[in-house]
Records
---
Amino acid sequence: MTNIMHILGFQQGGWGAALLAASSVTLALSVLGFILGAALGATAAAGRLSPRRVPAWLAHVYGTVFRGVPDLLTIYLLYYGGSIALTQIGTLFGSDGFVGLPTFATGVLAIGIISGAYQGEVYRGAYQAVDRGQFEACKALGLSRYQSLRLVIVPQLMRHALPGLGNVWQLVLKDSALISVIGLVELMRQAQIGAGSTREPFIFYVAAAALYFVIAVVTASVFRFSEARAWRGMVHA
Amino acid sequence: MIDFAFFLEIIPVLLAGLPLTLLLTTASMVIGFFLALLLALAQQGNRRIVIWPIRAFVAVFRGTPLLVQIFLIYYGLGQFRPSLQAIGIWWLFREPYWCAIVALSLNEAAYGSEILRGAIKAVPRGLTEAATASGMSKLLTLRLIVLPLALRNAIPNYTNEIILMVKGTSLASIITLMEITGIAQGLISQTYRAVEVFVAAGAIYLALNFAIISALNALETRLTPYRVRA
């Protein structure tokens, strides 16, 4: 027991501070990836809902591919694909080594692309759940398309989207552990490093699991709070 | 521009990983399903001492990354080799193959038990009351009324679970198992052609998903013929 406290402690030679710092990297990675995913997802939803064929088809392919292919494969595509392109550009300028992409940015991009595919489905469903009468009311009031989206549709759409977004967020948080494979020192990678150097893998992976669990539980309450807020003023049936 | 010869070269190489992907998926889904059923049924009573540990298990396995679970079982439990050898289950935790199946099965048991719990709850109360009124025992009601209806209703959710499991098996490549994603990563670092390898491996996964979805939709249609409208 004293051994565990010593390894995970905050004193000299303890890993507590490193694990907490890595947790904040995980959180930053997940939040930024989720935000990028929101932008991509909103675009994809707009594409899916578009009456024109090409955007609808492109959005459909995007959603199908990135929800159907293992996330690890997507991460390899972005990291190696990007690095290979960068290395080739590097050789043009006389560099002769492998140029790796910055891992944090690649991680955000990967999580953004993957979660965007899931968020697109959430937004599309939520848009369709908004009462038709609201669109007609916007027209009757003479609101422009942008005004009706911003003032009327999106606030109501969020009510239906929040539970789904909460699920996607949990997915994002867990997916962020996969970014460790490209060498970014987030929580998972930090646990691996600690496990390797102390030869105590069990303690480190339990600690990592506990930290992920705490982040998941705490952030879930943010979604619950937002949901309660989004529904304020509505009488529950 | 598109190098078909390259695709023809890598597709058979990638397909060599398909049996392992299928094996991991099937083994983990089957073991996970039976564990999930046990967990869901155990929660039907209202004994807190039974329900509470199950809820904790489900929350932990759903709230932590699969990769952490795999590492915990493969590397973490390896630390307890002498004790595991003493009770004779070291063979299970020595092989990455078994570790992957244990981790994926436990993960699936957690997700699946929630699906089945919901599906059992959704069986109309009137049906079980009718069964009791007909003098059927609890076990008989479960076997003839509740489970057939619950399992049939769980099919759409289970379809999603199988797709997630197919994707989840890719993590086995991190503990050295060369399934499709593992082979793909090897190919990328050998050939430096990430996009082509991604397209080929992705196509295999999408075809697999499509086959699974079609098969389960067909099964659902067969089991609920009255719901199909022309």
---
Amino acid sequence: MSNSKMLTGKVALVTGANRGIGRAIVETFAANGANVIANARTEGSLDDLCGALAREHGVQAEPLYFDVSDPAQVKGGFQRLLKITKQLDVAVNNAGVLDNSLLGMLSAKSAQDIFATNALGTIYVMQYAARLMMKHKQGSIINLSSIVGVFGNEGQVAYSGSKAAVMGITRSAAKELAASNIRVNAIAPGFIDTDMVRTLSEEKFKERMDSIKMGRIGTPQDIADCALFLASDLSKYITGQIIGVDGGMLI
Amino acid sequence: MDNTEKLREVFAEALQIDQGKVVDSLEYNSIPEWDSVAHMALVAAIDDAFDIMLDTDDVIDMSSFGEAKKILTRYDVEF
């Protein structure tokens, strides 16, 4: 099969699409022929990107602004989405927040915010996305977990906990939705070159790099390529899986 | 076809029961055909038929055919 235009005719929603991994995913999907709905919190932040994607790839690309951590906003967002399209084939729950704090210094507010966006936001979006997919008896939901959700990490009790939650959410939803031919999988990225990792100290950065067997930091494109596979029909018999995309990282 | 008939058809089709069984007093979980899994399919069918997106709270509260009509009036569907 040709590697180009793997998503022609599909409609994909990507949350947290304004930078990093989310942006790479929405760009990759559009380049592969999908009509994309790009989500972020900040009004206006995706207008230029969507315009460029539509021009460059000849697809429909629409921004949709809402905060995944707020159930009322998610509902409103999907009501607006319904005015754009009645079809949804792919939903990528990528929106995430990170706050590095040692356990003893983790504020309740920070812990709650991290879980609200990373874990609960994933649930809220899946609730509506699955209903839209149910109409056509097909769909692919892709959740972003993390390698630290598997192994844990110092200073990331809340973040890694929320990403571990994403795994449980993924596996349970996969069981519930399989009968409707809706697949639910998660990607667990390793050390990826995004704004999130630039907050690390030089020493920590080196330590992480040394733990990657393939000897290089991952790129957002590495994650987007896996998302493309999971969004496409190539993965049509795969559900409930957590796929590590980490270059053989050990932590 | 008025909206009551339309909704009755949606219920009958989604739950795979006779339209005659779809009366206001028909309650969630009162018949084997209307279990939680069927409820999800029913809600998706209602969304589709009336071009709306039901709030998750309304999905949870939709405990009978009569209640479904009450809920839908909040989405500008007239009965």
